[in-house]
Amino acid sequence: MKTKAIFNGLLALTFVGFFTQAYSQENKTLTNITKVLEIFEQGYLERDTAKLNEWCSTILFDNVEIIGTYSMHIDTREWCTGLEKATELFRNDWLNWGDLTINLNNAHINYDNDLAWVSFEATLTKSPENSNGRTIEESAGNLLRSINANSEKEDSISNKFKLLETAYLANLVLYQYEQGEEFVWPVRVSGVLQKKSGNWKFRQLHFSYPNQGFPNVRL
After folding, report:
1. Is residue 128 predicted with pLDDT exceeding 70?
2. Has domain 2-133+181-208 been given CATH number 3.90.1150.10?
3. Torsion over CA of 125, 128, 134 and 136, rounded to 10 degrees?
């Protein structure tokens, strides 16, 4: 009876040790993945282009794929593969896109062995104050110049369609600026990470805007 009690005790200790080790490993994995996301967030907070190459090398694989919000076709500036092109995309983001604020508090982080997939929310703010947005006068002027240039083109587009496009764009500009010159847009960010040589890095990153009704782009 005493021997059986000792055996059961050792068995219990073995199970406790196993589950403790498994929990510790899971906690370590989540911590390491979260650290990559925090480095990603810090880059967009600081937007220090002097640190851009190091930042990219730290969190991106050499053959990383980036899919931006304006992407429609593969192998373009907003849908690119490779560290060099990705670096240029992020450089343009940091200099021209606006203030991207990332929310990691409710990030979804999942993994299976050495592969992880994540998603989180963000907001993009553009305004004349942060030098990334235009005033209504600037936007209206750009629209008028664009309308004038399109009206003089000799192409297959009918005058009716040109007028409809003009009315649509004018309504869009006027409606949006009625709400102020600061634009805050919701952004979705998702990505795939892989652990290699003990380090987690992004294999793919995808930025997108949510949309209601008909998509803005039609082929």
Report:
1. yes
2. no
3. 110
